[in-house]
Amino acid sequence: MKRDTKYARVLLAVNHFLIFFLIVAFVITCCMMLFIRIMANTMGLELTGENLNLAAKLTFLNVVFISLLLTVFDTVRRKLTVDRPVKKITEAAEKMMRGDFSVRIPMPRAYAADDKFRDIIECFNKMAEELSGTETLRTDFIANVSHELKTPLAVMQNYSTMLQSPNLPEEKRLEYAKAISDASRRLANLITNILKLNKLENQQITPTPEVYDLGEQLCECLLSFEDMWESKKLEIDTEMDEDIRVCSDSEMMTLVWNNLFSNAIKFTESGGKITLRLRADGDYAIVQVSDTGCGISSEVGARMFDKFYQGDTSHATQGNGLGLALVKRVIDITESDIFVESEVGRGTTFTVRMRRVTNGDI
């Protein structure tokens, strides 16, 4: 392989020399003929065959020398400005093919490479960075989905084994059966959310816009969690402008509100407060869901919309880390916006901005 490469390089150098030779020979020959003719006519010189033969030999030597000089210069130039960046790009690409996404190509100096190579290197480094992040997400996804699948399965297996005890009291039997039911429901919810997220990411679900009253939808979604907030004795505060209509996919947006309300209730301690605000701001409808819960750190906030990411690494709270990933995907698909403000120990506010429908739009 190396021998073939060297042979190819030799052929390339010879090819470049021949090209330069022909160009230089043509240019110098034309110049010499013009020069000799002008001198002969101007000075009245008579050119003999011996003089012409000597001039031809000197011209040929000059052509060879200049062609060699240009070939060496072009070879050095290509070596520094072409071969070297290409080699670095090739080596980095081979490392990426072997799974090393941490590779980065140092940016060459302006005089050491063509601007096009600098553009390629910049794009390559960005691609490597994106792939590195994707690989991290893939690893986290596998680890988290394995944990989320294994936990309910282990619960179901353990309690089903205990249910087989012949002398088990009826009270314990009902308790174990409920634990199995809860674990199976958690597993079903996990699989359902994975399928939903997969369909949303692959655009197998397209939004069906319709005009509806956003306030009514928010109230219906919030009331569906009444048992949960009453069991934790939470204070619910609502401040909602009337007659705010939007044109969006109501079913998809229901998924957004249910996840935001569920998280607010889940992470707010007993006796806390949850606030729902709806107001019009020009051409937009602004929805804010606030809680007085534990809050979110900046580290958690940076990854909160990643699949299977949970700020509670102990998994002490129920959930599978897919809720906010679903929310973000729906928000993107429906061309809405979502913002998060949080302070550890003081609570979190999610703000959703949607384009609203005015009387002039109907």
Tally of strands: 7
Our measurement of the CA-to-CA distance between the termini, rounded to an integer number of angstroms, reads 71 Å
Poorly predicted runs of 5 or more residues: 312-320
Count of individual helical segments: 9
Overall average pLDDT: 77
Short description, anyone?
This protein is α+β, with helices and mostly antiparallel strands and 362 residues long.
Describe this structure in words.
The structure is a single chain. The protein has 362 residues and is α+β, with helices and mostly antiparallel strands. The protein has 3 domains: 99 residues, no CATH class; 60 residues, Helix Hairpins (Orthogonal Bundle), CATH 1.10.287; 152 residues, Heat Shock Protein 90 (2-Layer Sandwich). The chain has 9 helices and 7 strands. Strands 1, 2, 3, 4, 5, 6 and 7 form a 7-stranded mixed sheet that branches. Helix 1 packs antiparallel against helix 2, helix 2 packs parallel to helix 3 and helix 7 packs antiparallel against helix 9. The radius of gyration is 37 Å and the shape is elongated.
Set out the fold topology:
Elements lengths: L1 H42 L5 H49 L17 H49 L6 H32 L8 E4 H10 L2 H6 L3 E6 L4 E4 L1 H17 L6 E9 L2 E8 L6 H6 L19 H11 L3 E7 L3 E11 L5
Parallel strand pairs: 2-4
Antiparallel strand pairs: 1-3, 3-7, 4-5, 5-7, 6-7
Helix pairs in contact: 1-2, 2-3, 3-4, 4-9, 5-7, 7-9
